[in-house]
Design goal:
Layout: H1 3-17, H2 20-23, H3 39-46, H4 50-57, H5 66-75, H6 80-94, H7 110-118, E1 124-127, E2 133-136, H8 138-143, H9 158-164, H10 168-171, H11 175-192, H12 197-209, H13 211-217, E3 227-234, E4 238-248, E5 256-261, H14 267-289
Antiparallel strand pairs: 1-2, 1-5, 3-4, 4-5
Helix pairs in contact: 1-6, 3-4, 3-5, 11-13, 12-13
Length: about 290
């Protein structure tokens, strides 16, 4: 990943999404040669010179003040995730040396694992920004059972399964939304940790081996992933759509605890109970085998 190239493409893609009308600028007649705003229009809205904005869009964010970054973010009408990403890119391009590093990770504390495994009625897992599943509770492993086959590379990775495993498309029924979420989360993490060799290795693998990932990656979409609904097509229990809440672990920077739930007396709750019964059957079968 080239941070300057990422900056250029990110800003250009956001600029292309904003029309003069949306920005509150007069729409003059004639054909516009670019989609969305021109660079000079962004410069006007951001309160900087045209030359300076052109320099920013070429990737030279190092040294840009908070006021300048806020001005650009406001001009491009960036949402919270996009604004954070812009700041991450500015920090990344200023880092020296830009040497690829492998981020060491200590084992998860026993206290965190106890909390995870105490959630007996909710599928839950702990992941890093690369979407590796670092720990799962009993129902979480049951929900994500297709990812935990003996042939799957370790650590189990949601993105690798989704794009490279033949069963990935079947497991996520709302494919387009799921693809956008996965790629946006990885793009967000790439802004935070551009020199993480594990992350760049994963992205390089996916770009090389999956055209769908490559197309989605080029859109430069980012997002924050705190709460919502997610659907699965589970091989044992069928369709199941659950609410999720994702909580960052303050004492473990970069790690997120995600838990799924369902409102009582709903089809989703019935499906979750069926999943729990299936998990109990699988556990009994494993115990019997041993």
């Amino acid at each position: 990943m080239d941070t300057k190239s990422d900056i250029r493409e990110f800003l250009a893609s956001r600029r292309a999404k904003i029309t003069p009308q949306q920005a509150g600028l007069p729409a003059y007649g004639g054909n516009r040669r670019v989609p969305g705003l021109r660079r000079e229009e962004v410069a006007l809205l951001a309160g900087v010179s045209i030359d300076y904005y052109v320099r920013l869009e070429r990737g030279h964010l190092a040294g840009a003040s908070e006021e300048v970054l806020d001005g650009v973010a406001n001009a491009l009408q960036l949402d919270e995730a996009e604004r954070s990403h812009l700041y991450d890119l500015a920090r990344a391009v200023a880092e020296r040396p830009a040497r690829r590093t492998r981020r060491a990770r200590d084992p998860l504390p026993d206290s965190v694992l106890r909390v995870l495994h105490s959630m007996t009625d909710s599928p839950a897992f702990i992941r890093n920004g690369r979407l590796d599943l670092l720990a799962v509770n009993r129902l979480g492993r049951a929900l994500y059972a297709p990812l935990f086959t003996h042939a799957a590379p370790r650590p189990v990775n949601i993105a690798r399964f989704q794009f490279l495993d033949p069963t990935g498309r079947d497991f996520f029924p709302d494919w387009d939304a799921s693809v956008n979420t996965t790629v946006s989360l990885l793009r967000t993490e790439a802004g935070r940790a551009p020199h993480d060799s594990d992350l760049t290795g994963l992205i390089g693998e996916l770009v090389t081996r999956s055209e769908e990932f490559r197309t989605a990656w080029a859109k430069h979409n980012v997002r924050l992933h705190h709460t919502g609904r997610k659907g699965f097509h589970h091989p044992a229990v069928g369709e199941i759509t659950l609410d999720f809440d994702a909580m960052e672990l303050p004492a473990q920077p970069g790690l997120t605890l995600t838990a799924y739930s369902a409102q009582p007396n709903t089809p989703a709750h019935d499906a979750l109970q069926l999943l729990a019964s299936w998990a109990a059957t699988e556990d009994a079968a494993v115990t019997t085998d041993h």
